[in-house]
UniProtKB/TrEMBL annotation:
A Pfam family assignment: MtN3_slv
InterPro entries per UniProt: SWEET, SWEET_rpt
Top-rank taxon: Eukaryota
Annotated localization: Cell membrane; Endomembrane system
Keyword terms: Membrane, Repeat, Sugar transport, Transmembrane, Transmembrane helix, Transport
Record family assignment: Belongs to the SWEET sugar transporter family.
Designated name of the protein: Bidirectional sugar transporter SWEET
Topology relative to the membrane: Multi-pass membrane protein
Amino acid sequence: LFLPEMAEPSFYIGVIGNVISVLVFLSPVETFWKIVKRKSTEEYKSLPYICTLLGSSLWTYYGIVTPGEYLVSTVNGFGSFVEIIYVSLFLIYAPRHLKLNTIVVVALLNVFFPIAAIAATRSAFKDEKMRSQSMGFICAGLNIVMYGSPLSAMKTVVTTKSVKYMPFWLSFFLFLNGAIWAVYASLQHDVFLLVPNGVGFVFGTIQLILYGIYRNAKPAGLSNGSSEIAADEEEGLTSRAPLLS
């Protein structure tokens, strides 16, 4: 592990993926700094961060129970820690009328569901390989479902002919993170990592193409409602984009 000449190529790719993933996990820090300064979550939504915490926690468990996937468990363990902080800040600063709803969603998605998923896979399968594969299937499925946010962002770009709500660097990191982890998954022969990150790579590529097409285009008019939706999609993309590993 500590001797470069003895390390597998996948190790170096995984380390690069870890660095990129850490940067993505930390990308909402500015948002939460604003929340703390203003002591209010204002119009920001908690669901993207709650979903990211769900995915990160399950990927952490997957990395722990799957031989050779310690790089997956370490980066997602870090991601889980960061997302717990984000979600906790939401619970502290959310408006009173939203606080109870947020607590319920956190309890369901960040407590009940992970415990139920882990307990179900452990009770249903005695073989460690089957447990790992079943958890990988759950994680990959969640990742693919969560890619609905980038799809919405791309639809907004085409509809409005504006890239305002699809920031270049977020799209670039979606592309780069998906590419790195897809290569890592190929080297590790891990289909559960390959499929969602392959999807992320494809979506990231499409977003970069759309950015190139519409970055100088004259924007179509947006209603206030559309602006709020697009802003929410940007926020979701910030936290969900590469849903790591």
